[in-house]
Amino acid sequence: MQGMDETKVQKRIKNRLALNKFFRTLFFISTLVGLIVLVLLIARVLTQGLGYFNWNYITSYPAPFPEKSGILAGLGGTIALMLVVAPVSIITGISTALYLEMYAKQNKLTRFIQVNISNLAGVPSIVYGLLGLTFFVYMLEMGYSLLAGGLTLSLLILPVIIVAAQEAIRSVPNDLLEASYGMGATKWQTILRVILPAAIPGMVTGSILALSRAIGETAPLIVVGAATTIYSTPDGLFSKYSAMPIQIYNWVGRPQAEWQFVAAAGIMVLLIVLLLMNATAVFIRNKFQKRL
Description:
By secondary structure, this protein is mostly helical. Helices cover 75% and strands 0% of the residues. The chain has helices at 6-49, 55-58, 72-103, 108-120, 125-139, 146-170, 174-182, 187-215, 219-223, 244-252, 258-291. The chain starts with 5 loop residues before the first helix and ends with a helix.
């Protein structure tokens, strides 16, 4: 402190402590607001939907009367959509990330592609719906089928998976790569035995979060022809289909108050599916983290 103005030092310390206190209060209020909104949302859904949420509701198809209506068509359609979306988007997304990080030359073209992939993650979902309608439904003549809907949702979440996979690959320590190359391993062997095991937790987390977004999307599915009311589950890739968000959207739009309760029960089913997916992601991430 010798040679320094003690008054100025004390003033600076006081200002920093005040600034620290301000941001701590701001962060606490932000967290509190988020928690309050979440609790209110869950409470609202539970109070409205619990009366209709039972096994009969889950195993029944939509009906003209609220007390007989169920979510089976939407639930079956959503699961079938995920069976298309998950393999297409995850395999394509991780392969693209591996190419960009491990094989592509780091030049202006590669950086241009990476910037555009990041920007695509923020494009509104309705734009992907219009792209799917033009390309899959009309140009490839898939019609308003489950396959067209699944591929459209795959395009929607593909940028998110690529960005998450790239970040996971970059987080692998260089020491591991150099040790692998030093022992004579080829690039492919290094990817298979070093990079993928180390990056899988991050890749899985990003993929599940992206799939969670896809499972709740409504706008692109409406554009590519998901039916608002259907009385069967899909039996093939070119079948007609519905999905839980579409079914809930249809119920919410009806004027009778009882349909709001049926929609709330549908939201509960959707939340349970999302929680199961997130729990799976946490389980896989923890399992691979323990191995490293």
